[in-house]
Amino acid sequence: MTIEAKTIATDYDRPASLDAPRAPRAQSRTNFEKWAWLFMRFSGMLLVILAIGHVFIMLAWDDGVHRIDASFVAARWKEPFWQVWDLTMLWLAQLHGGNGLRTVISDYSRNDRTRFWLNSLLAISMILVLVLGTYAILTFGSSS
């Protein structure tokens, strides 16, 4: 005779693995979570390098913050090197942060419908920031 422990929480609060810990799990067809995990590690390392370089160049180089104005930014973003640097920082930071928030949503949303709508809002906001940020970097200072 087995005695089952009483639980106060509802069924959806418990991970599926607790109900049948030895049951075979469905294998996913992709390794998305593995690649997302690896992306977080490598993008984090690259972002540290890009951000420290950015802070050093903008704050410690020449006159520091006293030289930064719209004309300085326009002149900087006319050079392809700085466009690539800042675009890389924008895209990596947005994708890194969005992936982290996707993980938090997955961990803490209890309802599938809530998870779907939160992930949809996250995707829309990420796309909006990436499109507007890329547009600003590539067209800033150019006369139309």
UniProtKB/TrEMBL annotation:
<dbReference type="InterPro" id="IPR000701">
    <property type="entry name" value="SuccDH_FuR_B_TM-su"/>
</dbReference>
<dbReference type="Pfam" id="PF01127">
    <property type="entry name" value="Sdh_cyt"/>
</dbReference>
<keyword id="KW-0472">Membrane</keyword>
<feature type="transmembrane region" description="Helical">
    <location>
        <begin position="81"/>
        <end position="104"/>
    </location>
</feature>
<keyword id="KW-0349">Heme</keyword>
<keyword id="KW-0479">Metal-binding</keyword>
<keyword id="KW-1133">Transmembrane helix</keyword>
<keyword id="KW-0408">Iron</keyword>
<feature type="transmembrane region" description="Helical">
    <location>
        <begin position="35"/>
        <end position="61"/>
    </location>
</feature>
<dbReference type="InterPro" id="IPR034804">
    <property type="entry name" value="SQR/QFR_C/D"/>
</dbReference>
<feature type="transmembrane region" description="Helical">
    <location>
        <begin position="116"/>
        <end position="138"/>
    </location>
</feature>
<protein>
    <submittedName>
        <fullName>Succinate dehydrogenase hydrophobic membrane anchor subunit</fullName>
    </submittedName>
</protein>
<keyword id="KW-0812">Transmembrane</keyword>
